[in-house]
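Dear Dr. L.,

I hope this message finds you well. Following up on our conversation about the binding site, I have prepared a predicted three-dimensional model of the protein together with 2'-deoxycytidine-5'-monophosphate. For your records, I am including the exact sequence and ligand specification that went into the calculation, followed by the structure tokens. Please feel free to forward this to your student if that is useful.
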Amino acid sequence: MNIAIDGPASSGKSTIAKKLAKEFGLTYLDTGAMYRSLTYLVLSHGLSKDDIQAIVELAKTTPCEFKKGEEGQEVWLNGENVTLAIRGPEVTANVSEISAIPEVRQVLVDQQRAYIGRGRVIMDGRDIGTVVMPNADVKIFLTASAKERAKRRFKENQEKGLPADYEAIYQQILERDYYDSHREHSPLKKAEDAVSIDTSTIGIDQVLDKIRQIIHEKG
Ligand code: DC
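The resulting structure of the complex is given below.
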């Protein structure tokens, strides 16, 4: 069984995907972390966003690694633990632009598809149901109002000790929504056969119940 979860920033995708992975014994792939890791590399190498050749080279030669840590999944790049760094404001402000480069998407989508061969995967992102795993058994499209998502991200940042300015987070979410949905290649879009779940007013447990039911129906 393969599960695709798509949706805008902070719609709860990774929280839900991690819980489902544990419950159903699936490998979890956080594709957003892959775009964030590459953005972190581009910034730390001081590369221009126009230097597509160099960016693609980095994507090919320095893929991020996922490791199991004490507090959940960790992201590593070249022996450096970047789990927290890739969630920082600088990466968040630049990741939409890097992820809109078609050549970058080609490399990362190929890396993501390599996981499908192993079977039993759950991936979250923006184009999983439409491009990366069009044959996924279960496709979910999670949504929530921008205000609710900003509130969640604000709380999450406070808990992680990351910068937390509600208004700035809200504006950034609106910008990323726009950018991710309007880019030319693989924009954020619900797959025709995906089930939409609006999480604005329901809790994690209710979302999980709905998805369990969908999995059961497919099963
Ligand atoms: O889910 P996230 O916020 O960590 O994703 C970071 C960015 O990466 C997001 O703004 C859009 C991009 N992304 C993408 O284009 N395709 C994916 N499958 C996952 C993320």
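In brief: The radius of gyration is 16 Å.

With kind regards,
A. P.
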